[in-house]
Amino acid sequence: MSSMVALCIATLLIWGGIFAYMLSVDKRLSRLEKD
Amino acid sequence: MAVVIVAAFLLSPPLHGLGEAGRIVYFHVPCAWAGTVLFLIAAFCGVAYIRTQNMDWDCKSSAAAQVGLLFTVLATASGAVWAQAAWGKWWNWDPRQVFIFIVVLVYGAYFALRMSIDQIDKRALISSVYSILALVAAVFLTFIAIRLPGTESLHPQDAHKGMDKDVRMVFLGSLVGFTGMSLWMWKLQTGVERLSLGRLSEVDTTPYSIADTTRLRGETLE
User: Fold this and answer.
1) Is residue B5 part of a domain?
2) Do A10 and B28 touch (CB under 8 A)?
């Protein structure tokens, strides 16, 4: 794997992970507020 | 954070000896750092719960452990990507990889423990004690075990010491940004935990007494 590809994968992984986590928090918060 | 990302890709020169993939250091190290800070907060809130028995501290402790685990998993995954580029293997059982994997398992067990206890106060007390023990394990594995004889690692050590001024600026900016973002995420997650606790306390989780069981059995027999 080239250096640049590894950098892009790692960056997308980190920011994608944070984004997915925040989406799950938002979803859980909406469900709790709805109940 | 947007400034940090732009600076990491466009403004910062490549790191000495690490090539373009070395820029992962701007995201990987701050992730590991944010994870450690949040585990420290989780243990601190655990101590505060044991002292005060205030459930709000348990909410804060649990939220900190959740966000801390997220950042530790992201640091592990991004480290594996860097290992593939630098060493040619995603996972080669390097001591640093093994130790961070153990930390992930230790905090994974924290949530398994929380889910296995129904009584809210008992769950809070036991997980508070566990969060303190988990921090001791995490600090030992991250900072001490890696320096013991026989655990020599290929992982770059003390990379910050040889950094140029520009690289150091971006790196410190990233550290500050990730720390701030992780604390904000912790605050949001604490709000979710408080709401969740409010819902839980509305549900009667008291187990059936023997009298209830007998009454229920009697009704069934009739």
Assistant:
1) no
2) yes
